[in-house]
Amino acid sequence: MKIGIGSENPAKIEAVGPFLTYFKNAELVSYSSDSLVSAQPFSDEETKEGAINRAKDCVKQGAEIGLGLEGGVMEMEDGMYLCNWGAVADLEGNVFSAAGARILLPNKVVEGLKQGKELGMLMAELTNDPEIRKKDGAIGVFTNGMLSRSEMFLHISNILLGQYVYNLNK
Ligand SMILES: O=P(O)(O)OP(=O)(O)OP(=O)(O)OC[C@H]1O[C@@H](n2cnc3c(O)ncnc32)[C@H](O)[C@@H]1O
């Protein structure tokens, strides 16, 4: 059985471990799938849609189960938050989605976002590490290393697997 992850980002690939533990004979394939949303999603809706599109695209490219993980930002009354979404899709047309952690972004980052820069680039500038989005990510940096991007996506991955199996067994 082929399980697809719609990204080549190691922080996302590492996070789908629960699916490989549950589906013991599964092989993980990483697809460079298109989220079909903007490079920098600006709402929960758009970020969720990106995750769903990535999951569905994996199925289109040959996976029995497709997984999509997407980072974005969303506005609330008190400022702009980092938001994260994940989705699982399968050959039968089932789709489930789940949201992950949200944290308020510092003003300096928000200013850059409003000028049209991507969060990945802003985080690279801030940390002097062009690979930061593949490692700790914004969530890791702004939580002082308490939670890495991969651990945050792992939480989403567990919620997706749980929902998927619950509905499979109904
Ligand atoms: O290779 P892909 O799978 O596209 O992964 P990505 O990190 O580049 O892309 P996402 O679509 O998940 O995120 C959209 C943008 O927001 C950035 N981003 C989102 N969450 C981030 C985080 O926690 N740390 C750093 N950048 C983040 C990301 O780098 C992109 O510029």
From TrEMBL:
GO molecular function term, any single one: ITPase activity
EC number: 3.6.1.73
GO biological process, one term: nucleotide metabolic process
Keyword Cell wall biogenesis/degradation: no
Residue ranges of coiled coil: none
Cofactor(s) of this protein: Mg(2+); Mn(2+)
Keyword Ribonucleoprotein found: no
Protein name: inosine/xanthosine triphosphatase
The organism's taxonomic lineage, starting at the top: Bacteria, Bacillati, Bacillota, Bacilli, Bacillales
